[in-house]
Design a protein that fits this description.
Number of strands of chain B: 11
Structural class of chain B: alpha/beta
Structural class of chain A: mainly beta
Oligomer: heterodimer
Strand content of chain A: 35-45%
Radius of gyration of chain A: 15 Å
Bound molecules: zinc ion
Largest sheet of chain A: 5 strands, mixed, barrel
Distance between the termini of chain A: 36 Å
Order of helices and strands of chain B: EHEHHEHEHHHHEEEHEHEHHHEE
Helix content of chain B: 25-40%
Shape of chain B: globular
Shape of chain A: globular
Radius of gyration of chain B: 19 Å
Number of helices of chain B: 13
Strand order of the largest sheet of chain A: 4-5-6-8-7
Helix content of chain A: under 10%
Distance between the termini of chain B: 21 Å
Chain lengths: 131, 389
Amino acid sequence: MTDTSEERVRDAGFDDLLDALAEGDGYYLACANGHGSLPPRRVCPECGSTDLDEEPLPETGEVATYTQVHVPAPSFADDAPYVTAVVDFGPVRLTGQVLADYEDVEIGTEVAPTVGETETNGERLVRFELR
Amino acid sequence: MTKVRVAGAGMTPFGSHPERTTRDLFAEAGTRALDDAGVDRGDVEAVHYGNFMGALSEHQGHQGPLAAEALGVQAPATRYESACASSGVALRQAVRDVRNGEADVLVVGGAERMTNLATAESTEVLAIAADELYEVRAGVTFPGAYAMMAAAYFEQFGGSREDLAHVAVKNHANAVGNHHAQYQREITVEEVLDSPAVADPLHLYDACPITDGASAVVLVSEDYAEDNGLDAGVAITGTGQGGDRMALQDREDAATSPAATAAAEEAYGDAGVTSDDVDVAEVHDCFTIAEVLALESLGFFETGEGVTAAREGVTTRDGDLPVNLSGGLKAKGHPVGATGTSQVAELTKLLRGDHVNSEHVPDARVGVAHNAGGTVASAVVHVLEEVGE
Ligand SMILES: [Zn+2]
């Protein structure tokens, strides 16, 4: 059930975004009407526009909501407990692991996105660092 | 438009039956439903069957025909998958088929086998109801997603772990006499608060268990019921479905469930009732916070005001609006694909007066069932009414 990173085939769009986030060049997709969305995406989910352009992701965002996971899936067995958050960047929100203690995070906390690897099996994932 | 009656309802005991296949579970529930209805197997025109994880938990896809075969029904059968709303969605399709005159007799139900997996494995499998790329790979579990909804709710509207604990205590109390229920025992607020953390702020006793089980109802047209002298005193008068963006991160607000609000508005309009007319409800309390969101989406409380409903006794069995008299997903159990039709089976018995908890709602005429998938990217609401004698 748990893939290893050697076996995993790239997911077009998604892995490209992770590559960019890892370089500090995160982006989102913007339609002509100003809606933000994330790849892979051909159509704006809000308005149906197919005219989507990459725009730079703001360097920091604010925690919109968060939790500390104590009971993980097997693919995060060695990572638990860990903090997961939905982070609001304005045009889009992004979910990832927060590199901080649960007590040091609250709704509104400012964080910056990066890419790391899970302790359990080295899978890439979105991470957030406190600012 | 043809009117839809529930002619019969059947369930297996919900609980830990790791050795039982979904085909066996469904055969038991379906047979009970057909026996309850007094409907001949040969009259069944189709089987609508809900199942979520069978392809992973028992390596069995294409479960529709297998379910019909197990029930001894020779008719077309389809499996519906909408995560935890799978059989609710199956029911909605069946209701529409009867209304449209496409069928007079349908079996609708669902089954799930879950406890044959270790807890960690079932945690992984349940997570496939979330967005694989943007949620699961970031470490979001199913409890973790609802925990983030609870955290957002507390931030915006207030409320406490203790408020949520009262939801669990209420639903356990309701399950005590329900012989279908997984946990037929009471718990205390202290036990909920002191149970181990699963995903803060939710603890073990805020969460429904892992459950094996099946449920089924027999839907018939009003004409078929009359022509065959069936005792089918409950009608499904309203159906509604709502949808939302799949991932929590793609919703404006993690503290509300607009898909359920849309489903409820459609179902109430369809039935010609309002939330004020509802006497009893079965709602999708996979986590305590989920019951709160359901109460608000169903219009029983304003947004942000449902969190104290159990604590203040409004939704307890002796309150103005008893919610989850079955024990809910929390105490009755949550065999994912079976849950939607089990809610309707429980409501049917509550309205007919032959449920163990019918004594708490002796005058109930209108019931509502709320079934949600994932973090409520899918929601199905049905209105049931007792037919006047
Ligand atoms: Zn747009």
